[in-house]
Amino acid sequence: MALGICGTDREIMAGSYGWAPDRNDRLVLGHESLGRVLKAPDSSNFAVGDHVVGIVRRPDPVPCRACGAGEWDMCLNGRYVERGIKSLDGYGAERFLLEPDYAVRVAPHLGMLGVLLEPASVLAKAWDHIYRIGQRTRSWQPKSALVTGAGPVGLLAALMATQRGLELHVLDRAEGGPKADLTRALGGTYHPRELPKDFAADIVVECTGAPQLVIDVLCGAGGRNGIVCLTGVSSGGRLLPFDSGNFNRSMVLQNDLVFGSVNANRSHYESGARALATADPAWLAGLLTRRVPLTDWREAFERRDGDIKVVVEFEPPGS
Ligand code: BGC
């Protein structure tokens, strides 16, 4: 039905990330999928017509302890593969074949919005880990969350913050427009370009990977006992001044914690699917700012003003 386009796809197109399957010099792109079941084994829980999303990662062949436990998102040896990213063709095709264990059903009322499940799964994992990590102290009761970056990942992080009853703050470089409106529609406060002086949140979810913003977040946006979760994959090579002594001092004296989070396992896709199913569909629709038919797929990779999530739409087979 549809394929979501993200920064990872653009990096693969630019040749700076991604791996073609063995003995092949081409990789079919696409890891943010949405399909309609055409055929399913009787033994599976799927029926013709179900809307499904394909899980991106597959366990490494060893498998390591994490992959062996179904936690391929935490793979220990890096030999995992990812559809559309690492050594396995992606979902950017009119038809794709999916092992039932790696298919996740999405609520049919979401229609096209089901394509948001893959990015939602990545955030569902981040939030799952934030709350597990928070349990390091019995008295932990987070009240506020800051999300940096109001792209699709940031806005889904923001949605999940409000679903957890947190006071939401979103920082983005856009002065206003749909990102600010979507933040306010969640009941959150939108901060264009900078945060108020002495701002601190109990939880920070960094969703840009922008090197300077990452430093700013590490050095100040988290409150005491704060948890900072980094989700943006940045490209290296840019050196910036960083006061590591001060960083260390405040980390230690405030019991702060910073961790990274990538990918998602089946349980995170399932919680992501619940998060989408209970969200306001009109709000989710605000994230899908551009739908491009397959024939014009190149346009989907162009960056245009006002873009949040761009999707390539597929015609039903046989039409
Ligand atoms: C995908 C993840 C993947 C990561 C690293 C992201 O764009 O959403 O599923 O693990 O890239 O390859």
CATH class of the largest domain: Alpha Beta
Question: Could you tell me the number of beta strands?
Answer: 15
* Range of helix content: 25-40%
Mean pLDDT: 96
Please describe the biggest sheet, giving its number of strands, its sense, and whether it closes into a barrel: 6 strands, mixed
The CATH superfamily of the largest domain is identified as NAD(P)-binding Rossmann-like Domain
Detail the poorly predicted runs: none
What is the CATH architecture annotation of the largest domain? 3-Layer(aba) Sandwich
What is the CA-based Rg, rounded? 20 Å
Strand order of the largest sheet: 7-3-2-1-15-14
- What's the domain count? 2
Bound molecules: beta-D-glucopyranose
**N- to C-terminal separation?**
12 Å
Number of helices: 10
**N-to-C SSE string, H for helix and E for strand:** EHEEEHEEEHEHEHEEHEHEHHEHE
Principal-axes shape call: globular
Please identify the structural class as seen in this structure. Answer: alpha/beta
CATH topology of the largest domain: Rossmann fold
Range of strand content: 15-25%
